[in-house]
């Protein structure tokens, strides 16, 4: 199986994404690193322990770490209005599996990626602060990682501002460091994730799985659907982060195009925008494989099948 590290800010869609990873035999999770984002770091670390508990024996012995508690330069930005105050809006959740490991997430990233050069895929589903710090502390790291698969950015409009997607806006400087790093990079942005909607029918299928992972995921996505209905007029929440995990498992579920991507760092209306050169007008070399289309029904089938194998 493909060794992966999961880095994110759980957050309800991060939680579903990580359950998908633990349930998938194609990958072996080496560790999980939490970063500030949807909820303050302290809460995100606790939530990480809860997700590991939900994954049952699939997560046995998988270490988890606390990472950066704030963006590199800008002030902290959370998204509790989307994910609820706790980040995991569900009842009957287990306690965290065990406390996090001692030591910083960034040290874990550096040591794990260096231990297996070219082997480990990093699936990042939050602001890129941990990844950027690791790349700065260990400048060889972009050459050691097999690939960074990031849920973030957009080829088109944003969701936190008209121009910027949340993960990009929550630490644009970190995203800039990662996009300029030379690391092999796949961007799974809003332009594809907004096509993967957890409709009422899909939630019903999740519930009918009859296991705890399905029930908890359905409950959280139900809460999320309320927010999406109100904000975007959609019939359910978008499965952003689970699509990034699916992209690591099954890249063929998406259509990819190599292109230059730059992150807007100047303040103002476009702060955090991922400027994607779809038509090659800059003449620059591509620095990312950008997802431009997705087979949403096939993705949802995969999610359903895999979550069904958990406790
Ligand atoms: C991203 O922002 C967060 O709120 C979600 O967890 C996802 O990673 C979508 O813009
Ligand atoms: Ca996230």
UniProtKB/TrEMBL annotation:
SUPFAM superfamilies recorded: Nucleoside hydrolase
Magnesium as UniProt keyword: no
According to the UniProt entry, its GO molecular function terms are:
purine nucleosidase activity; uridine nucleosidase activity
**One Pfam family from the record:** IU_nuc_hydro
| GO terms for biological process, alphabetical | purine nucleoside catabolic process
The residue ranges of the Inosine/uridine-preferring nucleoside hydrolase domain are 4-301
From the Swiss-Prot or TrEMBL record, give the protein name.
Inosine/uridine-preferring nucleoside hydrolase domain-containing protein
Q: Provide the species name.
A: Deinococcus wulumuqiensis
């Amino acid at each position: 199986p493909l060794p992966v590290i999961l880095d994110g800010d759980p957050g309800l869609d991060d939680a579903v994404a990580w359950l998908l990873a633990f349930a998938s035999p194609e990958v072996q999770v080496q560790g999980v690193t939490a970063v500030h984002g949807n909820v303050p770091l302290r809460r995100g670390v606790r939530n990480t322990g809860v997700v590991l508990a939900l994954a049952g024996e699939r997560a046995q012995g998988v270490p988890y770490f606390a990472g950066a508690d704030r963006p590199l330069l800008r002030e902290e930005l959370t998204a509790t209005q989307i994910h609820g105050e706790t980040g995991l809006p569900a009842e009957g959740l287990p306690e965290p599996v065990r406390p996090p490991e001692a030591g910083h997430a960034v040290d874990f990233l550096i040591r794990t990626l260096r231990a297996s050069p070219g082997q480990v895929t990093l699936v990042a589903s939050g602001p890129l602060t941990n990844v950027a710090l690791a790349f700065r502390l260990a400048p060889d790291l972009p050459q050691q990682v097999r690939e960074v698969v990031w849920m973030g950015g957009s080829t088109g409009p944003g969701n936190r501002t008209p121009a910027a997607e949340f993960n990009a806006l929550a630490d644009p400087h970190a995203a800039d460091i990662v996009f300029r790093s030379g690391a092999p990079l796949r961007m799974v942005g809003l332009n594809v994730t907004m096509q993967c909607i957890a409709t009422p029918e899909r939630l019903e299928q999740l519930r009918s799985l009859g296991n705890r992972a399905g029930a908890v995921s359905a409950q959280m996505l139900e809460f999320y659907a309320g927010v999406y209905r109100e904000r975007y007029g959609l019939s359910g929440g978008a499965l952003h982060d689970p699509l990034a995990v699916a992209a690591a498992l099954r890249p063929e579920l998406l259509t990819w195009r190599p292109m230059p991507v730059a992150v807007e760092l100047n303040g103002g209306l476009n702060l955090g925008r991922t400027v994607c050169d779809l038509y090659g007008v800059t003449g620059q070399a591509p620095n990312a494989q950008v997802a431009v289309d997705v087979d949403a029904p096939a993705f949802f089938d995969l999610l359903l099948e895999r979550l069904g194998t958990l406790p």
